[in-house]
Amino acid sequence: MPLGVFHYAFRSKQELMAMVTETIARRSKADIDAAVLTEAQPDLFDLVQGGLMAYFDHVVMHPHEHLVTYELTAMALREPEMEDVADRQYRYYLEENEKLVSAVAEMIGFDYSLPIPVVTRFVTSLMDGLALNYLAKGDEEEAREVVALLATTLVGFAMHVDTREAVDD
């Protein structure tokens, strides 16, 4: 494309890369929000597993989109002038996931036994690693078992607000 057309739409290569990663992240987040925030009378385990599976389903249905995010992240981390792209990408993931983790706690009426930013980073790291592992290795059935294991683990972090006892699933 002619440079003038590129600069009409984007001020820099960094802005283009950030827009691509944010657009893909918003698409998968919309699927997660639909699975989690529209549930009536939610069961905690079903809600958590549903949100995690919605993300993983997006990876399965759009593997090339997710591969692009990993490629752009790696490229951004290699080029000092592009570091902001990777930082913005993961800041977005963590901020949006923190909102969702907090919303689930409010919907069900519980608190976490760990600080929410720690829970959020744990979930983000595991699902990010699982997505990359799936893209490299395949084996959708085994990956879904890992999602269920993560859901079970997350439910273990839940504590009733009133009694501060672990929530049973």
Key phrases:
7 helices, mainly alpha, Tetracycline Repressor, domain 2, 77% helix, 169 residues, two-stranded antiparallel ribbon, globular, single chain
Q: How many strands? A: 2
Number of domains: 1
**CATH level-four homologous superfamily name:** Tetracycline Repressor, domain 2
CATH class: Mainly Alpha
Distance between the termini: 55 Å
Overall pLDDT score: 82
Verbal overview:
By secondary structure, the chain is mainly alpha-helical. It has one domain: Tetracycline Repressor, domain 2, CATH 1.10.357. 77% of the residues lie in helices and 4% in strands. It has seven helices and two strands; from the N terminus they run H-H-H-H-H-E-H-H-E. The chain has a two-stranded antiparallel sheet with strand order 1-2. Helix 2 crosses helix 3 (44-61) and helix 3 (44-61) runs antiparallel to helix 7. The model has no long low-confidence stretch (mean pLDDT 82).
